[in-house]
Amino acid sequence: MIKAGIIGATGYAGEELVRILLRHPDVEIVWYGSRSYVDQPYADVYRNFFKLVEANCFDDDLPQLVQEADVVFTATPQGYLAGVMSEELLEQAKFVDLSADYRLKDVQVYEQWYKIEHKSPQFLAEAVYGLCEIHREDIKKARLVANPGCYTTCSILTAWPLVEAGLIDPDTLIIDAKSGVSGAGRSAKTANLFSEVNESIKAYGVTTHRHTPEIEEQLSLAAGRPLVLSFTPHLVPMNRGILVTAYASLKEGVTEQDLRCVLEQRYQDEPFIRVLPKGVCPETRWVEGSNYVDINVLVDKRTNRAILMGAIDNLVKGAAGQAVQNMNLMFGLPETAGLELVPLFP
Questions:
Q1: Phi-psi region for residue 241, left (φ > 0), alpha (ψ -120 to 50) or beta?
Q2: Longest C-alpha distance within the chain, in Å?
Q3: Over the stretch 296-334, which tens digit does the pLDDT of each residue have?
Q4: CATH number corresponding to 2-126
Q5: How far apart are the first and last CA of the chain?
Q6: Whole-angstrom Cα distance, residue 334 to residue 336?
Q7: Quick one: angle between helices 132-140 and 321-330, nearest 10?
Q8: Using CA atoms, how far apart are residues 219 and 156, in angstroms rounded to an integer?
Q9: Which of 161, 175, 309, 340 is deepest in the core (most CB within 10 A)?
Q10: For the segment 253-262, what is each residue's pLDDT rounded down to a tens digit?
Q11: Regarding the domain with residue range 151-314, which homologous superfamily does it belong to in the CATH classification?
Q12: Candidate list 57, 132, 150, 154, residue with the active-site label
């Protein structure tokens, strides 16, 4: 059995890691880390685990944790893992970091967008960006995986094949994304109170959202050259889910069938990506609670633009599920182990 420790186990992504790992056939959770709930029973924090988890919460004592765990998941704020990471830790356990600390290869870009100093830039070159469908072979050999952001996962996977194949003009790419409130985390914030978000939708982080450089860096790899794009996120009054609608001009002579063929061929062997039938638009309700990505594309002939659409559960494929998918690859397990979750409805 693989022994797993979770730091940040009482956040939404951490809780989702617990839910998934409890039914994983090859994993035992040995550490439920939470600064806010030290010594409190984990099931007192999340009553859905009553009679399922008997353990108490621990602090974030990494030197102790790596002696007990084979893999450490850090569902922590930006800056935490970068502030404590060392070669000694990496020699004792593998790490899947759900923060942005190792997602961007350029430390100056990280510090510009996140407004904090990166304390361990020496590990940026080694860290592997954990988008399994794109970087699978590198993830298999990794000690340190940077789990992608939720908006970025949906945006990149929706657009990657068409950018890679040169069927759309990536310089015209505009990404409009909408997320449920759980994407903002569990900490108390006035802007996320029920009365503040219910019966409303709003754009936020306009021109400044920190997932923008992450999307640009990865799609630049697909394009084979640097890209700059527009990304605007929105908050919608639901618990879970991300819906991406992206727009890009078609290259000359490209048809909707060309786009569909590329999507279907690129993702035909991917267990968690579902290219929907022609004309069917992705909906967050059909992926909720699962590790699936639903994708489709349509062409607006009037404007000669491709309309790219994708939907995920931000807490599963956008966070915890993807982290477990990465762990499976890192330890040579079946990639789908513990993740064959049927979407919840209603």
A1: left
A2: 63
A3: 999 999 999 999 999 999 999 999 999 999 999 999 999
A4: 3.40.50.720
A5: 34
A6: 5
A7: 40
A8: 7
A9: 175
A10: 999 999 999 9
A11: Dihydrodipicolinate Reductase; domain 2 (3.30.360.10)
A12: 150
Q: What is residue 189's three-state secondary structure?
A: coil
Residue 185 pLDDT > 90? no
Query: How much of the chain, in percent, has pLDDT values that exceed 90?
Result: 95
Task: Tell me the CA distances in angstroms from 189 to 182, 235, 240, 261, one per residue in order.
Answer: 12, 14, 17, 44
Q: Which amino acid, one-letter code, is at 26?
A: D
Q: How far is CA 141 from CA 98, 296, 327, 333, in A?
A: 18, 32, 11, 13
List the structure tokens of 254.
Answer: 């490209």
- Range(s) within the chain of domains with CATH label 3.40.50.720: 2-126
Q: Residue 182 burial by CB count (10 A; 0-12/13-18/19+): exposed, middle or buried?
A: buried
The answer to whether 281 is a known catalytic residue is no
Q: Is 194 strand, coil or helix?
A: helix
Q: Of 76, 36, 75, 40, nearest to 57 (Cα)?
A: 40
All CATH 3.30.360.10 domain ranges in the chain, comma separated? 151-314
Tell me the residue type at 223. Answer: A
d(CA 324, CA 147): 10
